[in-house]
Amino acid sequence: MRDDRLTEAWRLLNGGDWWGRGDSIAMLNLEIEGGFTAKARQDSRTLRESLVELHQILAEAGQAGEDATLIAAELRKWVASRM
Predict the structure, then answer these.
(1) For residue 42, what are the contacts with CB-CB under 8 A and spacing of at least 6?
(2) Which of 4, 20, 76, 83 is the most exposed place for a label (fewest CB within 10 A)?
(3) Mean pLDDT, rounded, for 41-46
(4) For residue 18, with 0-12 CB atoms within 10 Å meaning exposed, 13-18 middle and 19 or more buried, which class applies?
């Protein structure tokens, strides 16, 4: 039972709602949505860093999908360029 739930969790965390193009979580731009405030910029950075961390967890478990890997690579570049 536990393995089934874990498999389902990995599947959901790898899905299009998280990593797809368009209106997925990874494509949210909280800076724009938040009106370019300092808080919105920080929220956007935190989201991107969290998604990179989530991808790392997926990859270490051998569960990272192709879309997640591509988008995480883009997010890593974005995070690195703004340090």
Answers:
(1) none
(2) 83
(3) 89
(4) buried
